[in-house]
């Protein structure tokens, strides 16, 4: 038991002497005793480690997915599912989990003050985007979607789910369904996912490298508002190769089931997932139907203009290993806030007034689920977005979640296995507590709970001092620092300047050239370094120059390194970036980007063909330490671009591969990478900037004054000062500590800024490391 503390909870107190930390996280020993896991196929290691490549294509991690990782890290594989977006190997070797939250900061702050965040960048290898924060960011990441406790439930929320017809003071214009579809009724074609949306939500698409062996349905592109709808639902099991299909149900518009087949997986079944699928070993034993049989039947059954309707339909199509371009996904049609999704069971009850997936029945009924998704799509088309928004689905879902939380399971196993169980509840069931350190004035808090030890401090400095003492005493700690957010005017200006800066550092000026130069040959030369967004002649000078704006920073840097100072048609040319206030420290920035831990061991290559991947497989020398091949695609036509990134385990392996690939046999151009994947995705989302490269941008007066007075809470100063302090604290933690740094982003009436996460595990050898920052 935790000894009583002096003073009243929630008030500042004196720093105590450090006690010895517990050996392992809750359930670590138990996690190794039960159940098969993919982790066991990994080579044995003495320490926990994270995957190098995140699974998410756009590197954005939702708050729910973040909660997945934290629950798995704290509780272990025998208690909760593995996180869906990254890999954490050897969880049983973790000792602590620590989350540092930098309230008031966002991804914009990180890259605006990239050099000042040097200590954090070097200490934490993995980075990922976060969506703009909800009003309950802290509650979201620990699985508490509402601050109210069960005892605070209004009477209208107790008992059964509130009626959809109950009146609530809601602003329809803020409803995400209205924001996406408008208030008027929509056509069937408007409800279809676009190709970009299908790419974002991981639907199988033709031409994508992970869909090479997928079967394409027959479709002719003549989709209309009268095209037929088909509800689809699949059940899966877990095999030695991952999830595989065990049942498919297809329902036509009238509700008639036109296909319901059990399917025998190709590989050894490790878990039938009977609690979800309802399929047991005995049911599947006599089945002879294979996946290829189902693919053939489905392809013959669906008309060319068929629209498939499902809930999280991407998973069903991937289980079928089929590609179909016309889909309605009800988990995305009924849009929810913060990228979260309503469950099918919830939508069936609230929208259709029917109960599905009843707990007294083993598993789900695939035909019932397929018919339900079809009815949900038909309801949406019949009544329109406004009718849906008036139901206030978000409030109803929160009520349901609160009711579920108020019904405490009977034993520890039920608590841990319940999908909506929060980290607080899990820790409580194991007799442990969560530490929450914050400032008294902070708005973001966790709800008071018997298993959450909250310590409020007067300043960020006191939070840091308490953290040094308290963190080793808890299996899971959240330490929140608070910084003054930018004003809307300054945020808008920073967005603008960030776009201009990135445009300028990816732009090069080259020349002088002869007036009789071969323009076509010059274009070929500069395009050989990477994708070009624009190329124009500069005629203001005595001799012509070229202005080339590249799509990626690596291409611009490669052009400068390869061509600056060379003789071309008898003239020595200079290749350089425009010189402005925003590019004065560009050489330092490029050096720091190349040294970024996330870019270590990553190569950029230009000039790759569509058969590059196949050629690579034939060169065994390059497979030494190769972890991933990243082949960017054109967002408009889906075609592979002529550059790629190769990720290796070490810098040495990458350098050896670079020497080979840029040699006479391959004739590619390349260098070590400068930009992590999440940065490309974020830059695409910045507002466009039409200012030409070289434009002089004067810093806004507000920021000039802040820097002149060196206010401690200004983000530029805070990034440098607190980055150092947090890394120093990190270096004192015991080996095996999973640490996350979260810049949650900001949200206001003037707009939202997405967040950024950094994470890493304090490894064995780091315990003797004096630290990255002094």
Polypeptide structure, described:
This protein has 774 residues and is α/β, with parallel strands linked by helices. Among the domains are: 172-400, Nucleotidyltransferase, domain 5, CATH 3.30.420; 505-576, RRM (RNA recognition motif) domain (Alpha-Beta Plaits, 2-Layer Sandwich), CATH 3.30.70.330; 600-673, RRM (RNA recognition motif) domain (Alpha-Beta Plaits), CATH 3.30.70.330. Helices cover 33% and strands 18% of the residues. It has 28 helices and 29 strands. Strands 4-29-26-3-15-13-14 form a 7-stranded mixed β-sheet, with helices on both faces. Strand 6 and strand 7 (242-252) form a beta hairpin. Helix 14 packs across helix 15 (366-390). The longest helix is centred in the middle third of the chain and has 25 residues, at 366-390. Residues 1-45, 145-169, 408-412, 689-713 and 764-771 have low confidence and may be disordered. One of its GO terms (cellular component) is nucleolus. One of its GO terms (molecular function) is exonuclease activity. This is RNA exonuclease 5.
